């Protein structure tokens, strides 16, 4: 009983609890408003739909905790997809092409990190610039045309397919990545340093933490996660367009912030990021199930976004 | 008798989709729509492969799917396609252009979304014809934003004062009028492109735009609904329909103006 009280006590002090409450309310609303929302196929649908952005949200959370931001993820997403698709079309094995894609993602992230940190430039500006540069890269290597890929089953089955119990494989990747990211952020000294960098970079540096290395590594990690997301999406859609991922950074950042990560750094959790990701997916899914007009959906999502963050900061303010 | 205008026919059409061109988001929405248990789906399929699985999923769930306006091609399992043959329409536009300016000179071709299947096919139709002439063309990415489109065409015309024409393979044709007017190039630079929207009709009437390919969007909306009704009510299989590549210009614009204002053309 005491343990239970302690557990509830910890929950109340956690920032993501506010958004979890909002999330539950939202799910209950859609469950009553439609008879299709609260069904197993729809839950799996939502999980599949959020899995692509979700992979990136986990590492955007780390980036934002350490007071950086990455606006180039949508363009990295397109560039990596194009690189992998074109290598594959030119005869390279899809496994090798994907490995090259992951390295390309790491490299693009490294560029973001090094230019931001070593150049002492605002990450907002650097990644705004690379957003354009990487988009152009995707357009140049594709010649502006979408690429279709007919992938071997052996690859499709572990990336884009549905598996036992009709579980979508992209969702399994998402859940696995969430666990890995949670481990990195909450159970390793690296994760501690990420919080320290965001909490007070100067103090962290003085206490011997190489904040530069932490920040650059964060950018590399999000580059790899974005590349993985791109490869999985390419497998699921059996193709990639050079315009893929446009506006993706905003969905990713919105999910991160809904999940309780503070834009001022130092605060945020992977559990919150997971809920934030599901939150965005549930809103979009539920509104379509309700037959909401396309012209109203963005308006409603905008209101929900602001409300969710307000709700979550309110609950964390109360605890003080 | 079949009468789709019968007041007893109750069809609810809900319009949904991503706010910007986004294939992945459109696939998500289609999956959600299938889940919501609609009786039919009418959708653009602007990617050659991405919609294969969702369309098959819809058909397996007993939901007929008709492609409209943009098609993924015959490999996609959709029951029918209603719309323009984009490649052929591109050729029609380019031939009309060659008839107007001759077989040499500089031309800019604007494209809103690089990577959109239909626009890519129109562009290929245009360039296949132009490649057989001495016309020197430049492809410009205008984005769907008209202000940006106008700025890009304006820059092109300033850089190429000897250009003979600007064309667009999409509704950014609307931006041509303001560019030609601002630069005082009326009757020197020809404008042509797609979609009979009010601004473009005005541009034709004012003498800025010389020809527009009409894809008859009313047909692309109306016929799939009718086809789904017939499918459900009488088991009649939906059939493909080519919504044409008619050329509208100063010679016939007045005929279509009032119909366009009512939303039929």
Could you write a compact summary of the structure shown?
Chain A is mainly α. Chain A has 14 helices and two strands.
Under the CATH scheme, which architecture of chain A would be assigned? Answer: Orthogonal Bundle
Let me know the number of strands of chain B.
Answer: 10
Give me the CATH superfamily of the largest domain in chain B.
Answer: Response regulator
* Class derived from helix and strand content of chain B: alpha/beta
Per DSSP, the total helix count of chain A is 14
Apparent shape of chain A: globular
Unreliable sequence segments of chain A: none
Q: What is the H/E string of chain B?
A: HEHEEHEHEHEHEHEHEEH
Terminal CA distance of chain B: 27 Å
Q: Over the alpha carbons, how many angstroms does the gyration radius of chain A reach?
A: 20 Å
| N-end to C-end Cα span of chain A | 25 Å
Largest beta sheet of chain B: what is the strand line-up?
Answer: 5-4-6-7-8-10
Instruction: Report the sheet with the most strands of chain B, covering strand number, pairing sense and barrel closure.
Output: 6 strands, mixed
Q: What is the residue-mean pLDDT of chain B, rounded to a whole number?
A: 91
- Multimer state: heterodimer
Report strand order across the widest sheet of chain A.
Answer: 1-2
Shape of chain B: elongated
**Strand count, sense and closure of the main sheet of chain A?**
2 strands, antiparallel
Write the layout of secondary structure elements.
The complex is a heterodimer of chains A (320) and B (265).
Chain A: H1 2-13, H2 16-33, H3 40-65, H4 73-89, H5 94-118, H6 123-142, E1 147-148, H7 153-156, H8 169-187, H9 189-199, H10 201-206, H11 211-237, E2 239-240, H12 248-258, H13 270-289, H14 294-318
Antiparallel strand pairs in A: 1-2
Helix pairs in contact in A: 2-13, 2-14, 3-8, 3-9, 3-11, 3-12, 3-13, 4-5, 4-6, 4-11, 5-6, 5-11, 8-9, 9-11, 12-13, 13-14
Chain B: H1 23-35, E1 41-43, H2 52-60, E2 65-68, E3 80-83, H3 86-101, E4 104-111, H4 117-131, E5 134-141, H5 146-159, E6 163-168, H6 176-182, E7 190-194, H7 198-205, E8 209-214, H8 217-234, E9 241-242, E10 246-248, H9 253-261
Parallel strand pairs in B: 1-2, 2-3, 3-9, 4-5, 4-6, 6-7, 7-8
Antiparallel strand pairs in B: 8-10
């Amino acid at each position: 009983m005491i343990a239970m009280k302690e557990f509830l006590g910890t929950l109340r002090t956690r920032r993501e609890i506010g958004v979890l409450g909002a999330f539950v309310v939202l799910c209950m609303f859609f469950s009553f408003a439609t008879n299709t929302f609260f069904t197993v196929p729809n839950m799996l649908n939502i999980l599949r739909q959020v899995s692509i952005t979700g992979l990136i949200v986990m590492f955007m959370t780390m980036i934002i905790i350490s007071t950086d931001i990455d606006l180039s993820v949508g363009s990295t997403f397109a560039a990596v997809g194009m690189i992998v698709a074109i290598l594959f079309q030119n005869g390279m094995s899809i496994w090798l092409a994907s490995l090259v894609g992951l390295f390309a993602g790491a490299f693009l992230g490294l560029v973001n990190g090094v230019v931001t940190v070593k150049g002492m430039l605002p990450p907002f500006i650097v990644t705004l610039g690379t957003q354009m540069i990487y988009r152009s890269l995707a357009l140049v290597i594709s010649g502006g045309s979408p690429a279709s890929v007919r992938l071997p089953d052996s690859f499709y089955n572990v990336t884009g397919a549905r598996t036992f119990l009709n579980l979508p494989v992209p969702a399994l990747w998402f859940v696995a990545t969430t666990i890995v990211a949670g481990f990195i952020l909450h159970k390793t000294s690296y994760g501690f340093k990420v919080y320290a960098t965001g909490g007070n970079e100067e103090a962290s540096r003085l206490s011997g933490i190489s904040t530069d290395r932490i920040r650059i590594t964060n950018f590399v990690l999000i580059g790899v996660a974005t590349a993985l997301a791109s490869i999985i999406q390419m497998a699921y859609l059996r193709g990639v367009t050079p315009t893929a991922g446009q506006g993706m950074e905003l969905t990713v950042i919105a999910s991160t912030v809904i999940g309780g990560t503070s834009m001022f750094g130092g605060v945020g959790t992977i559990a919150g990021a997971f809920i934030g990701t599901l939150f965005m997916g549930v809103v979009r899914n539920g509104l379509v199930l309700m037959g909401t007009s396309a012209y109203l959906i963005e308006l409603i999502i905008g209101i929900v976004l602001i409300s969710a963050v307000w709700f979550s900061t309110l609950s964390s303010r109360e605890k003080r | 008798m079949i009468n789709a205008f019968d007041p007893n026919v109750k069809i609810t059409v809900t319009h949904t989709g991503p706010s910007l061109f986004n294939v992945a988001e459109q696939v998500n929405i289609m999956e959600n729509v299938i889940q919501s248990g609609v009786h039919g789906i009418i959708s653009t399929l602007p990617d050659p492969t991405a919609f294969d699985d969702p369309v098959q999923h819809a058909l397996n769930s007993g939901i007929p799917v008709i492609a409209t306006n943009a098609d993924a091609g015959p490999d996609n399992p959709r029951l029918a396609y209603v719309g323009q043959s984009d490649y052929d329409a591109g050729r029609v536009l380019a031939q009309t252009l060659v008839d107007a300016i001759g077989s040499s000179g500089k031309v800019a071709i604007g494209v809103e979304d690089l990577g959109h299947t239909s626009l890519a096919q129109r562009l290929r139709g245009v360039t296949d014809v132009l490649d057989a002439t001495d016309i020197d063309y430049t492809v410009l990415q205008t984005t769907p934003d008209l202000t940006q489109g106008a700025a890009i065409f304006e820059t092109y015309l300033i850089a190429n004062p000897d250009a003979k024409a600007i064309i667009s393979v999409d509704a950014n044709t609307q931006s041509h009028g303001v560019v030609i007017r601002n630069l005082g190039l009326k009757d020197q630079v020809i404008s042509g492109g797609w979609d009979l929207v009010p601004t473009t009709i005005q541009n034709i009437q004012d003498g800025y735009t010389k020809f527009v390919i009409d894809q008859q969007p009313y047909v692309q909306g109306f016929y799939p609904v009718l086809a789904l009704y017939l499918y459900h009510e009488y088991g009649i299989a939906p059939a493909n329909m080519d919504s044409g590549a008619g050329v509208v210009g100063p010679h016939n614009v007045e005929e279509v103006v009032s119909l366009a204002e009512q939303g039929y053309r």
